[in-house]
Structure formats: structure tokens, C-alpha cells
Amino acid sequence: MAENESLDLGGPYARRWDVPFDSVRNGGSCKDATHEVEKALYGGLRKSLKQWNEYGVSLSDLLNQRDSKQGLRNIIRKMQGHQYARLFAAAAASSGPSQRECLRCWVDAILDTMFDQICHRLADKENCPTFYDVQDFTREVLQALDPAVERIVTRFDNDPNWRPPRAPSKEQGQSNPTKELMGMSLVRVAKP
Amino acid sequence: MTQRFPFTISYWTGAQDQIVDLRAGKHFRFDLDAVNHFCLSDLPAPLVDLLRIASAMVGWKATRGSHPEFLRLMSRLASFVADSEVEFRLPFFSQTKGEVVRRLAELNLHELAQMSASCVAYPLRHSRTSPAKQCGVCPACIFRRQAMQVAGISESGESYEYDIFEPSSKSEPVPWKRLKFLKAFLMQVAQLSDVEQSDRLPRAFERHVLSTGILGRGQPQKGVIGLLARYRDEWIAVASHARRNGQGWATSLARKQPPERQEQGVTYASA
After folding, report:
1. Domain tally for chain B?
2. What sign has the CA pseudo-torsion B192, B198, B202, B205?
3. Is the pTM of this model over 0.80?
4. Cβ distance B195 to B223 under 8 Å?
5. Which end of chain B, N or C, is less packed with Cβ atoms under 10 Å?
6. Is residue A76 part of a domain?
7. B174, B179, B187, B249: which to substitute to probe chain A, counting the most A Cβ within 10 Å?
8. Could you tell me if B114 and B209 lie in one domain?
9. Closest CA in chain B for residue A130
10. Judgement on whether residues B35 and B165 belong to the same structural domain of the protein
11. Selection from B216, B203, B222, B212 nearest residue A101 by Cα
12. Are B157 and B121 found together in one domain?
């Protein structure tokens, strides 16, 4: 079985995150960085869910066990400590009681893990900007990402079996989020 | 008999064969801190033997196990094994390391602090140098030196392989790659810049605190927020001192210092 998708920036199983990191490091705009992060997030989630599937676990299984620390621990053990699943467990323990809050907390945890490493690395040179500057920039990117995160969370909340598609291109990424949500039921029942 | 040691996971794992000897039908309470001594005179002999094992631990094996969640689980295990309530308490839970060390200074126990070692690899990986030195760049060394500075306890840079806080003119510059842990500390401090503006912790901190059982859901977070704000202020003062001494790393915390917070209540030892 392939090695688990990871969130260790610079590691062999988190290569997709090198692109947004390079974009930020090379002085890319907030818009560019946001697009690259969104792409990596979609890719990371898609790959992780596929790997979970290979272990015989789905997002529904984790959501069903979100109130049981031991239950989640058992599932994570089954997945050889998949990093995305461990973050899910941390999110489940700290989020509000609803499924949606748990999912939101999980996606936030993924982004925080990555942005922490990006900030840490950006200050890798003697002439680095201060941590406050880096933090301001990443905060801006996170804010710009918010609609995308909400879309992902809504999708998962409506249908935990949803697989994130390949991330939209820059042009598609600018599409109207309301339009994207129109195909979804507002009463949480997935349309055929 | 009085014995002082860090209570550790390795103590428990190292003592597994004998742990059944804890059955004494008595309520024990351990105060886990570096300042108060354990008074073992009232404990049954087998338990004293168990505790002695821990004093033989060196290096990283003796530095873990004081996390509240770990101690909560250990309390449960020990209570189960001992068939009576065993409770581990962290009396300095709501204090920063700097505040704990400052208490040592107030008790005129500077020398005791100076004699101790914190380095995660000391002396195992540093026995090539004679006498063995602490590395000065691992998280434990950085945390220790920050706390010592806050407490105003001076330390010789000679005790460290790399002296990143008070380097003398003769010291070799520390390679930037060796500063990765220091950077992580500073980044955390920057993330705490507005921590007291809300009743809730920043989300990454909140996630950690709740998921590791330090606080329960719905418990007020004010205490932890106050603790983190004081910790941040200590670091800001240490960094500003280092900046005045020309330390390059300290410039990464050079912005957003509310003037009223600077260096309040912090004294510095001379190098």
C-alpha cells in the first residue's frame, strides 16, 4: 500500500504543498497563494480519502465515532496513523457537537498545520521578515480561502462520501460560489 | 528520606515489574514540581524503591510525563493498580516556567538551578566535550534559558555548546539551521500577540488544549489565556534584551510590542 499522504512540508508525501510554499516564498500575491493552497487542499483531501478507502475506512466512519476517543483511536490505528485522520481526531475532541463544526475544525486544522510550517520556513533566512509580517500574510490568505473551506465543509456535511474533485483552475476558481452550491440540497439530503 | 526527581513515563515503564507493590491501601498524593521535594518518609518501602528507579534516569528518558493528560491517565492506572486513590497534582500548572524558576531565585536557590541540566541529549550525545555541555539549541535548552533569564539567574555560556542568548565576543556564531527550535518558539509567541483580546484561545491552541484534555469542552479558558499572555510577555522582554545585544534572531519579534507590556516585572542577569 502506498505511503500515507502527509502534511510534513518538504517531505516526500506532501509534495503538493511545495507549490503554495514556493509561491509564498517567491513573493507571490495573496490571490496566487490562495489558489495554490486551495488546489493542494483539494488534492490532499482527495488522496487521503482514497487512501482511507483502501484501509476500509470512510469519512462517515470517523464522523460516526467523533464522540468516542477510543473509537477514533482504533480507526486511526487501522489506518497506520494517517496524519489527516489524526487531525480529525484532534478536531473532533475540540470542536462543537455538530458534524459541521467538526468538519470545519478538521479542515482548519489541516490548513493551520501547513501554514505553521510555511511561516516557520519563511523565516529561514537571516534577512527574514518578522513573524508578524508572515502571520499577517497567511491570515490574509486564510481569509481569502474561507469561502472555499466553507464549500468543502458543506459538501462533506451533506454527503460524507463526496470526493473532492481536482481543484478548479484559476479561472474556474473565480466562479460564483453560490452557483456551485445551487446543486446541493439545503435540507441535507444529497440529490441524485 | 527526601528525594527529588522528575516523575517520568520511563519511571512507570521501567517499573512495570514492581508496580504491583504499590498496593498499600493508602491515599498517596504526589506533588510534581521541580522545587518542592518529595517527602517519602511516610510511604511504604516498596514504593520508595520504585521512586528510586527514577533518579537513575538520565537524558531524554527523564524529561517526559508531566503533561496533565498523561498524569490524569496515570492517576487512573495507579489508582486501579493500588486499589486506592492515587492522585498526581501539578501545583505549578498555572505558572510559566520563568515564574517557577523565579520562585527558586526568591528562595535564594540560584545555585540549585545553575547545577541542573535540561538538555534533551545531555550528557549522552555531548560527552565528547569535556566537561560535557548542554547543546543550547534544543527545545529544552531554549525553554530553560528563557526561564533563567526571566528569573534573573545568570548562567555561564560555557555550559552550552551554542550560546544563543548571551554569546560572548569570542563565541562562534550559531549556524542559522541550528535555530529552528528557537524560531518555533518565537513563531508561537507571535501567534499569541492578541491572545487576551478574546475569551477563547487562538484556534490552534484551543484545539491542542481541548484535544489533549488540559481543559474540557465548555470550561472557561481565561486561566490558560492569562498564562499564555504572561509567557508571551516574558519572551518579548527576552527578545528585546537580545536585540539590544545585537542578536539577529531577536529581530523576528521586533514588531507589535505594546509599549506598556515591555519588560514589566522582568529582570535580567548579567552575562
Report:
1. 2
2. positive
3. no
4. no
5. N
6. no
7. B187
8. yes
9. B252
10. no
11. B203
12. yes
Query: Does A68 fall in a domain?
Result: no
Phi, psi of B119 (to 5 degrees): -50, 135
Q: What is the per-residue pLDDT across B163-175, written as a single tens digit (0 to 9) for each?
A: 888 877 666 678 8
Cell of A145: 480561502
CA distance B192 to chain A (A): 10
Q: How many domains does chain A have?
A: 1
Chain B closest CA to A43's CA: distance in Å?
A: 23
Highest mean pLDDT among A10-19, B33-42, B82-91, B116-125: A10-19
The values of phi and psi at residue B94, to 5°, are: -100, 20
Q: Does A7 touch chain B (CB under 8 A)?
A: no
Nearest C-alpha of chain B: how many angstroms from A179? 30
Interface touch A132/B193, C-beta < 8 Å: yes
How many residues comprise chain B? 271
Extract long-range pairs of B177-181: CB within 8 Å, 24+ residues apart: B178/B137, B179/B137, B179/B249, B180/A120, B181/B137, B181/B138, B181/B139, B181/B142
* Residue A144 included in any domain: yes
Q: Which of B54, B89, B124 is the last residue of a domain?
A: B89
Contact residues, chain B, for A116 at CB < 8 Å: 187, 204
Which among A154, A191, A184, A156 is positioned nearest to A52, based on CA atoms? A156
- CB-CB neighbors (< 8 A) of A68 in chain B: none
Q: What's the domain range around B228?
A: 97-261
pLDDT tens-digit profile of B18-74? 333 333 334 444 444 433 333 444 444 444 444 433 444 444 444 456 778 788 888
Considering CB atoms only, which of B193, B211, B256 is closest to A90?
B211
